[in-house]
Amino acid sequence: MEVNYKLLNLLSEHARYSDRELAVMLGMTEEEVKRQIAEMENEGVIRVYKAVVDWERTDRPYVSAIIELKVIPQPDSGFEDVARRIMKFDEVESVYLMSGGYDLCVIVTGKTFQEVSMFVAKRLATMAEVTSTATHFVLRRYKELNVQLCDTESDDRGTMSL
Predict the structure, then answer these.
(1) For residues 120 and 104, what is the distance between their CA atoms, to the nearest angstrom?
(2) Which of 108, 107, 110 is nearest to 96 (CA)?
(3) What angle do CA 75, 88, 52 make, to 5 degrees?
(4) Quick one: three-class SS letters along 34-69?
(5) What is the C-alpha to C-alpha distance for residues 28 and 48, in angstroms, rounded to an integer?
(6) Which residue ranges of the chain lie beneath pLDDT 50?
(7) 48: helix, coil or strand?
(8) If you placed Cys at 15, which of 26, 34, 49, 60 could pair as Cys (CB 3.0 to 4.6 Å)?
(9) What is the gyration radius of the CA atoms in the chain, in angstroms?
């Protein structure tokens, strides 16, 4: 299968483009677009279509945190088995293998700061392979998945007089 990166870029920018719109933008037929999308879905290149939600504009309680984990790599599997177990938790949104000061980056969501804290303390920190955690709560999201979440470009720092 040959990957059409222009098509993937357009879909990642706006997954609700119609096949017709994509065909016009790419100089292809609708049938070619449908076929290529179906192939990429079948091959696992396109995994899912999701909306970027600005939870601050809803009344739903929502807290997210970035958790840094230092982990003991396992014989024969390295970090893979640990990462697979962590990603099965409902609270876990994303898991990344990192270079640098820690091994795994885990994005966690919950309804309250305490709920997320208890998840880290009771579920992640207690895993035998986890040697340390560092939790960073997200206070505000300005941009996510290339989507700007704040509408204004005002500078609220105030003015300074001399």
Answers:
(1) 13
(2) 107
(3) 125
(4) HHHHHHHHHCCCCCCCCCCCCHHHCCCCCEEEEEEE
(5) 23
(6) none
(7) coil
(8) 49
(9) 21
